[in-house]
Design brief:
There is one protein chain. The protein is α/β, with parallel strands linked by helices and about 575 residues long. It has 2 domains: about 350 residues, Alkaline Phosphatase, subunit A; about 180 residues, no CATH class. Strands 1, 2, 5, 6, 7, 8, 9, 19, 20 and 21 form a 10-stranded mixed sheet that branches. It has a 3-stranded mixed sheet with strand order 16-11-17, with no helix packed on it. The protein starts with 12 loop residues before the first strand and ends in a 5-residue tail after the last helix. The N terminus is likely disordered.
């Protein structure tokens, strides 16, 4: 047998991604009988919490899932890709991955692969099989599938392919939001079932994103402890939310039944979810601590004075809501959700007002990631690599340990990471330098550089956000029954899926085969096999047009993921 052939072909493998799902929510739904198939799958197989990549945003998480590697090897840290020495950032896509995906390894082994709407699959790469693009596709693009003619076939049968969710929470718009989620779920399901039946496949992944959108927008309706919980609203809309989860569970059952008996089934989420009570503005802290310094010109001084008086994007949001612009939401991205204030947006402080020659650190990213202003890496770096850099990092870590909520005097930072704690590899230098996780109901407000003059304030907009622990459920002949996995990580799924498909695992994957999930007799008969390295796989990077780049960034704003 050649090293590109399957080692132990035995069954199909079906992977179903349920974006953002968490046992913190699903356990209660299973107890109510809302998710009968998921309950059955857990009883008959292996389950456990699945630790995401940091930060737990879809781009970094799915890049880690697809490659089995940490971002220091695959190169995706956020939704926007940072070029060394350049402020310009570009929305991420499949060509920016610096490591081979599991679909590439499987294709080379001769397996037929199907990939449906999985993030970081645009533009579609040639595989031995078929794929449909994800929500990071530019608006108007027609290279939505591999092979290219597949999208024409799909749209002729099912109508225009829905790439994006657009509805957001308003007090009167919950039913409209849920209707969109139902419609996209139905389209995804019918498309998947059609392809399962009309195409040959050995490994198939189906990605469903509606759970993520519902939890971002409507968490407060499901959570009685949330500060924004309204019993009347919950009584009216909670049944409809549960119905969406019931339908999702039913569609998952349809996928599994269509795959046929003997198929290995993996249910997973790229990250977990939880409530948001309070926002933390990290650049305000960096400013107050002297890490970040503003310019001294007249315009910046005026902006700073107005900022201290409370003229901030957060105030603009609240004004918009007071005057009935309820659709201009946090989840729509600040520049769009404050559309009526675009004309005065120039008065807000931004990184354009920073004196970089005197600034040692700044924050940028969904989870308050902190970058040291390193000379040679940043466009206007002021901190020398080596001892000066390490001194700044030490000061940042020490300061974060002391960070407290001014209203309660309680510490709000749960864990702190230096770059080397999370990232290793040839592109690790491009990572943030200091990262952290806050206590459970706090969220770093990373979608604007200076959103509020308060360090900590009550959350507005989305009522739920990502957490580090997603879900994992595994069913199939090789899997043990009724076992709860401990310490499973998202990066473990790539080597585990390759193992189940009978493909050698690249030796430089950071993840491990989840052998604790496998029956000992099967594992003894089929021990994991290891093959060549998969890092530093470089594609010809997709060159977006200025219009495509602007549209993608605007869509990410619409989801609340970039400033």
């Amino acid at each position: 047998m050649s090293n590109t052939e399957s080692l132990h072909r035995r069954s199909k493998v079906l992977v179903i991604g349920l974006d953002g799902t968490t046992f913190d929510l699903l356990d209660a739904m299973m107890a109510e009988g809302v998710l009968p198939f998921l309950s059955q799958a857990i009883q008959n197989g292996v389950s456990g919490r699945l630790t995401s990549a940091y930060p737990p945003v879809t781009a970094a998480a799915f890049a880690s899932f697809l490659t089995g590697m940490n971002p220091g090897k695959h190169g995706i840290y956020e939704f926007l890709y940072r070029q060394r020495g350049d402020w310009q950032q570009t929305p991420v896509n499949s060509t920016m991955l610096r490591a081979k995906t599991i679909w590439a390894w499987m294709s080379e082994a001769g397996l037929r692969v199907g990939v449906l709407s999985v993030p970081l699959t645009y533009p579609p790469q040639p595989i031995n099989g078929f794929s449909l693009a994800d929500f990071l596709t530019p608006k108007g693009a027609r290279d939505l599938s591999y092979p290219p003619e597949l999208i024409t076939e799909i749209e002729a049968r099912f109508g225009p392919y829905p790439l994006y969710h657009s509805k957001v929470y308003t007090p009167s718009g919950v039913e409209e939001l849920l209707a969109e989620c139902h419609a996209i779920l139905q389209y995804r399901a019918e498309t998947a079932l059609y392809l399962m039946q009309s195409q040959d496949w050995d490994v198939l992944m189906i990605y469903l994103e509606g759970t993520d959108r519902v939890q971002h927008e409507l968490w407060h309706i499901l959570d009685e402890n949330h500060p924004r919980y309204d019993p009347t609203e919950a009584s009216r809309y909670r049944p409809g939310i549960l119905e969406f989860y019931r339908e999702t569970d039913a569609q998952v059952r349809r996928f599994v039944e269509a795959a046929g008996p003997g198929t290995d089934v993996i249910l997973m989420s790229d990250h977990g979810f939880g409530p948001i009570y309070r926002f933390v503005n990290i650049n305000i802290w960096l400013w107050k601590q002297g890490f970040l310094v503003l310019k001294s010109d007249a315009l910046t001084r005026l902006k700073a004075m107005l900022f201290h008086l409370g003229l901030t994007p957060a105030l603009g949001y609240r004004i918009a809501m007071r005057f009935g612009f309820a659709n201009l939401r946090l989840s729509r991205g600040m520049s769009k959700r404050l559309g009526l204030l675009r004309s005065v947006g120039r008065v807000f402080l931004s990184l354009n007002n920073v004196d970089w020659a005197r600034t040692s650190a700044y924050s940028q990213g969904n989870y308050g990631q902190i970058y040291v202003n390193v000379r040679g890496r940043e466009p206007f770096g002021a901190v020398s690599p080596g001892g000066e850099y390490e001194e700044v990092v030490d000061q940042l870590v020490a300061g974060l340990r002391e960070l407290r909520d001014p209203a309660t005097d309680e510490p709000i930072v749960e864990r702190i990471f230096r770059r080397q704690d999370l990232y290793q590899g040839p592109v690790a230098e491009q990572s943030p330098d200091v990262m952290f996780l806050l206590e459970d109901t706090y969220k770093p407000l990373g979608t604007l550089e200076f959103s509020s003059h308060r360090l900590v304030e009550d959350a507005f907009g989305n009522s739920g956000d990502h957490r580090m622990e997603g879900i994992l459920v595994m069913n199939g002949v090789p899997m043990r029954k009724g076992i709860v996995l401990q310490d499973a990580k998202l990066i473990d799924l790539a080597p585990t899926l390759l193992y189940l498909a009978g493909v050698p695992v690249p030796h430089d994957m950071d993840g491990r085969v989840l052998t604790a999930a496998i029956e000992p007799a099967y594992l003894e008969a089929h021990p994991p096999q290891y093959g060549s390295a998969g890092a530093q796989q470089v594609h010809q990077e997709l060159d977006y047009t200025p219009e495509e780049r602007a549209e993608l960034i605007e869509r990410l704003r619409n989801l609340g993921y970039v400033s």
